[in-house]
Amino acid sequence: MKEIVSQIDLVERHVGSRTVADGEARTVRLRRTYDAPVDDVWHACTDPARLSRWLMPVSGDLEPGGTYRLEGGASGEVLHCEPPRLLRVGWTFGDAPEFSEVEVRLAPEGEERTLFELEQAAVVPPEVWDPFGPGAFGVQWDLTALGLALELGGGPAGDLAAWRQESDEAREFMTRSSEAWGAAYAASGGSAEAVAAAVRTTTGFYVPQPDEGAGPS
């Protein structure tokens, strides 16, 4: 997995908020361009066989109004689908009642390149947002964007889960991701104190030191 860490620099990140029925939702958004046609990127994001290679195995009725479940991950309803440009789904872990949605937007940039945007909007409890900030979700989305890049480039080179657990390169990737989301948090108006605390806590969770625990449950 060469040049993995440099993939961090290919992503634009934005932190914001918007009003939803359940209150004020925090938003994290990432944008990057892939060297692949839009139909291929759409297929990689929606075909169950390909999703199982770079994200997680998925089951369910993958049509608007249907429900899906990622093995060991999120589940929800398929809310809106406009192939090959737009996919919006509910994004819930366990029985969490808070509002959470993920939207993927694709736009062709010529015949062989695609602009990819992913945004999560979620009502986040203070006990999660205050210590972690946007890195609570953003680091995982950076890992997701990396997995998609590997899939579009010919397939993941080995076990991504094992790479994340065992590789010094993965530790550097997640550390830099946490710092990048801290910079986006600062750009959104987060105070220097809040940003520093969020980067420290997020990095400690994703990249624990050998003498540290696994982080908050």
TrEMBL record:
Protein name: Activator of HSP90 ATPase
Stretches assigned to the Activator of Hsp90 ATPase homologue 1/2-like C-terminal domain: 35-124
UniProt-listed Gene3D superfamilies: 3.30.530.20
Phylogenetic placement of the source organism: Bacteria, Bacillati, Actinomycetota, Actinomycetes, Kitasatosporales
Stretches that traverse the bilayer: none
Pfam families xref list: AHSA1
Signal peptide interval: none
Matching InterPro entries: ASHA1/2-like_C (IPR013538), START-like_dom_sf (IPR023393)
Similarity section: Belongs to the AHA1 family.
